[in-house]
Design a protein that fits this description.
heterodimer; A: mainly alpha; B: Peroxisomal Thiolase, Chain A, domain 1; Peroxisomal Thiolase, Chain A, domain 1; two-stranded antiparallel ribbon; 14 helices; 14 strands; 35% helix
Chain lengths: 96, 403
């Protein structure tokens, strides 16, 4: 397993993921809350694929995601909080 | 009304170097998908495709031709040679002006683009070969066919992504019907299996890493293929007068636009194209025994396609057969409708329905007879061939047994 994350690191990840999602939703980051779903935010399938690309670029990770059946992917996209948690896991795993 | 028949067909694809080899592979349910082989493939996350392997351009073309023929043009020339040879037609004088060529492709000279971008960007070269432009242009294949066989009538190239070939063949059919030409060489070609071609598709995250499984509940995406198929379409009386061997009749064509989304297909747009092709061909739903599906192996395509068939056919949807041959030859993008029309011709001529291979688990949202895994014998009077492109552009052809 990779190194343990500091609180500062996890806050940075949370903020960056929210920024990426907010940009897709054409909202200010302050208007995106963790309990919202992508559907709540008006992000469609193309917006989702673009968000995943932006996450991969921002954190230099590879996200296991198949647009063919997003709900079956290992990467949980059920809410903003779920995406943030999934990105933290990936950053920890792939940092090793 | 002038009727349109097929008097020649030719192909090269991952299943075979000609029509007999390809149809044999389809009958046997053989899979042409394997590990991709080309430069930088190790930098891709998708490494499978239905590639034309052990192919040597020098076995078919001289050095001057190779300098001008991208891989998609080479495939077209080989398929056209088989088709025109089979038709027994030659074109001189008045006959040449009454014959044309309409072909489909999406990427055109993608290998040429890829090689030359690599050369100037990665290798830092400041000069490229003088023929890069005439080699990569989308109409190169159609133009070389017209030059090789002296076709001087209406000729052009259609690029509507995955529906390119069906749109091209639909245009060719209407040109003969409408009196613009007596003979049209038509079909399509694609050669997108190169680093840049696959890298671009990876981005959409709709490609499978292991297999193409159309209509199967455990499908996980599409797999690309390459190759070409070319047909000779001929006005019926013209073909009859010279005693030509008629392979099938093209009776109907329809195209529609979803006008909704750049990548997600709509059931309504597909259903209107299916119904339109039957109406144009004077066919009732009950006349259709077999449909060659677009069947890409993605949820985004397979579910609405099955729903569209159910809507267009009502209760007859349960009696007809629908298969996707993409699990065997891959998705040839702009060339796919042409290779798939071969399966329709086989159904009509030989009474053999090509299977949907790779099928493992029933999907309640695709509850049609998808001819899983094994070819079937059936008496077939009429067929449809579906193509639904990114951008929501749909094209469906209707065929009947030779008159």
């Amino acid at each position: 397993m990779g190194p343990k994350m500091t609180k500062e690191m996890t806050d940075t990840i949370t903020n960056r993921v929210i920024e990426i999602i907010a940009e897709q939703a054409v909202l200010e980051p302050g208007d995106v809350s963790l309990d919202q779903t992508l559907e709540d935010l008006g992000i469609d399938s193309l917006g989702l694929v673009e968000s995943i690309f932006a996450i991969e670029e921002a954190f230099d990770v590879s996200v296991p995601f198949n647009a063919n059946d997003p709900s079956e992917s290992e990467f949980d996209i059920s809410s903003v909080a779920a995406i943030v948690a999934a990105v933290k896991t990936l950053v920890t795993q792939q940092a090793s | 009304m002038r009727r349109v028949v097929i008097t020649g067909h030719g192909t090269i694809n991952a299943l075979g170097r000609n029509v007999p080899e390809t149809l044999e592979a389809m009958r046997e349910g053989r899979c042409g998908i394997g590990r991709l082989e080309f430069q930088d493939v190790e930098r891709l996350s998708i490494r499978i495709g239905a590639q034309v392997k052990a192919y040597d351009p020098e076995a078919h073309f001289n050095r001057q031709k190779i300098a001008l023929f991208d891989r998609f043009t080479q495939f077209t020339m080989l398929a056209a040679s088989e088709a025109i040879g089979q038709s027994g037609l030659s074109f001189s004088g008045e006959a040449a002006t009454r014959a044309g060529v309409v072909l489909g492709t999406s990427g055109g000279g993608m290998n040429t683009l890829d090689e030359n971008y690599r050369s100037v960007y990665e290798d830092g070269k400041n000069r490229v070969h003088p023929f890069v432009v005439p080699k990569l242009m989308n109409n190169a294949a159609a133009s070389h066919v017209s030059m090789e066989w002296n076709l001087k009538g209406p000729s052009f190239t259609v690029a509507t992504a995955c529906a390119s070939s069906n749109h091209a063949m639909g245009q060719a059919m209407q040109m003969i019907r409408g009196g613009m030409a007596d003979v049209m060489v038509t079909g399509g070609s694609e050669a997108m299996l190169c680093f840049g071609g696959i890298k671009a598709w990876e981005g959409l995250r709709v490609m499978s890493k292991d297999a193409c499984r159309p209509f199967s509940a455990n499908r996980n995406g599409m797999v690309q293929g390459e190759g070409a198929a070319v047909f000779v379409f001929e006005e019926y009386e013209h073909a009859k007068a010279r005693g030509a061997d008629i392979l099938a009749e093209i009776v109907g064509f329809a195209m529609t636009s979803d006008a909704s989304d750049i990548v997600m297909p709509s059931k309504q747009g597909a259903a209107r194209a299916i119904t339109g092709a039957m109406r144009d061909g004077g066919l009732n739903p009950e006349d259709i025994c077999y449909i060659n599906a677009h069947g890409t192996g993605t949820a985004a395509n397979d579910k609405p396609e099955c729903a569209a068939v159910a809507d267009a056919f009502g209760h007859h949807a349960d009696d007809l057969m629908i298969s996707s041959t993409k699990a065997m030859h891959g998705h040839l993008i702009g060339g796919t409708g042409a290779v798939e029309l071969l399966a329709c011709v086989m159904a009509l001529r030989d009474g053999v329905i090509a299977p949907t291979i790779g099928y493992q688990e029933a999907d309640p949202e695709c509850a049609l007879d998808v001819v899983p895994n094994e070819a079937r014998e059936a008496k077939v009077g009429a067929t449809l061939s579906n193509a639904f492109a990114f951008g929501g552009l749909n094209a469906v052809l209707a065929l009947r047994k030779a008159p």
